[in-house]
Amino acid sequence: MLIRLTYLSRATRDMSLQDIQDILTVARDNNQSIDICGMLCYDQRYFLQTLEGEREEVNELFLDIADDPRHDDVVIVSYEYIEATTFGAWDMGFAPASDEFYALLSEVGQNTFDPREFSPEQAVSFLSKLSKQ
Ligand code: FAD
Predict the structure, then answer these.
(1) Which CATH architecture has domain 2-131?
(2) Where are the domains of the chain?
(3) Residue from 10, 28, 29, 64 to probe ligand 1 pocket by mutation (most atoms less than 8 Å from CB)
(4) What stretches of 12-54 show up as alpha helix (H) in DSSP?
(5) Which residues contact 18 (CB under 8 A, 6 or more apart)?
(6) Could you point out which of 28, 32, 70, 125 has its C-alpha 20 to 30 Å from the C-alpha of 88?
């Protein structure tokens, strides 16, 4: 059974590009080996990430990620059963803050990234649009 799990969290310190790169290097290696895809974005010390794959694999990975000391205040935004993955092109895509990022944010009425204000549908749609840029 395929699922899509989306969560938000707060970085425990400011993340440099190198810090994000370190996360992505491990994530891409690991996710590829367990057939998980998804998208991550980071701004204003918030992470928003979606993970798609087999339910057991996603659940297990999420528990590991939630334990990672680089972030806390982890909140599951949505947990959905899906027919097919929509982030299949990415073992783990990443979108830094950019003009396109802020243009998409303004479509949901935000000037400053605060994923706590997103509805579950907005969170997934925001990540999906970012993944296509
Ligand atoms: P190890 O690398 O040996 O990690 C051991 C412990 O140390 C773990 O608790 C780990 O979380 C922690 N750790 C590792 N590196 C650091 C560091 N630089 N600073 C502080 N603590 C550290 N992993 C994936 O495989 N797929 C993902 O999609 C993914 N997304 C992530 C998203 C976010 C926002 C964050 C913060 C991490 C993400 N990770 C992801 C990394 C994940 O949390 C684990 O670090 C990774 O899976 C390796 O864990 P490990 O226990 O196998 O190995």
Answers:
(1) 2-Layer Sandwich (3.30)
(2) 2-131
(3) 64
(4) 17-33
(5) none
(6) 70
Q: Is the CB of 30 under 6 A from ligand 1?
A: yes
Residue 44 sits at the vertex; the CA angle it makes with 11 and 57, to the nearest 5 degrees, is 45
**CA distances for 99 relative to 54, 82, 102, 105, angstroms:** 34, 31, 5, 10
Distance 109 CA to ligand 1 centre (A): 32
- Does the C-beta of 69 come closer than 6 Å to ligand 1? yes
CB 76 less than 6 A from any atom of ligand 1? no
Hey, whose CA ends up nearest to atom 2 of ligand 1? 26
Digitized pLDDT (tens) for each residue of the chain, 133 residues in all: 999 999 999 999 999 999 999 999 999 999 999 999 999 999 999 999 999 999 999 999 999 999 999 999 999 999 999 999 999 888 899 998 999 999 999 998 899 999 999 999 999 999 999 998 7
Q: Residue 38's CB: how many other CB atoms inside 10 A?
A: 26
